User: Fold Ca-activated chloride channel family protein from Acetobacteroides hydrogenigenes.
Amino acid sequence: MSGIILHNPNYLYLLLLLVPLVVWYIIRNKHFTPKLKVSSVAQLKNVKSSTRRRLRHIPFILRCLAIALIIFALARPQSTHSKNDITTEGIDIVLAMDISSSMLAQDFKPDRISAAKNVAIQFITDRPNDRIGMVVFSGESFTQSPLTTDHAALINLTKEIKSGMLEDGTAIGNGLATSVARLKESKTKSKVVILMTDGENNLGEVAPLTAAEIAKTFGVRVYTIGVGTRGRALTPMATDFGVQMGYADVKIDENLLRKISQITGGEYFRATDNTKLAEIYNKINELERTKFQVDRYTKRSEEFGLFALLAVAILLLEVLFRYLILKRIP
Assistant:
């Protein structure tokens, strides 16, 4: 961004001196114009005004303009060039998503896992300056995407997530431990895991609270989300005739999820439908804001020389008009 400023703007008050100068010039020309008395002006009506007469005021105008330019030069006009350097302090975030068979329950529309993927994609889109990774877990855990700023690729990988990719079950401790492993080498000041599950821990080599203590050691803050309606939900169930949909009690270990978040300095949320889940992600999005720092650099260049040169050029032009174009005949 560029512009012009005046270092000594008070000098512009000198422009007021032009007012009495103009008044003096008008009075001078009025009182000192030669007069000639004649009996009739009829013969003078066809006499055309000479070019020299029409241009007689130009030297005075040029002199006033030169004086104004000199005053502007004294005011020291300066051109300014501003540049903004924006630096961001991003946040490293791992989304840990439960993909067990119960995530196909239809208390969310069209089901829990689809709703979870949709809000995760929107969350990724809303945070262009952060590195984000994706971990999925059920009976075991897997890194779907390491931390990356290539959010287009991350969104594509998120869309590919589906239940059945891993052994069935709910290994919350493994999912959290894998997420922390993705973050432990991070150099950012803020490291976050958003862990979403709809059940109780029933598999895995790492106990959930042990994983939480590990997260605390590495300065990782964990937000936990329990996904599922209160009561019963239409859920895939194994029967003698294969997997069929049936109503089952929604069992979420909220005490465990709450302890995990408390240990790591995070927060626990309960999502009972699509709208509530989206609201939770929006709240986390507001809690974990990327920090921006704007540094402004301003460079100034003196421009008074241009005004001074213009004033000299106009004074020379006045001399040319006065002594060449308007030269008086002796």
Observations:
- The CA atoms of residues 109 and 206 lie 32 Å apart.
- Residues 91-289 form a domain with the Rossmann fold fold (CATH 3.40.50.410).
- The first strand starts at residue 2 and ends at 6.
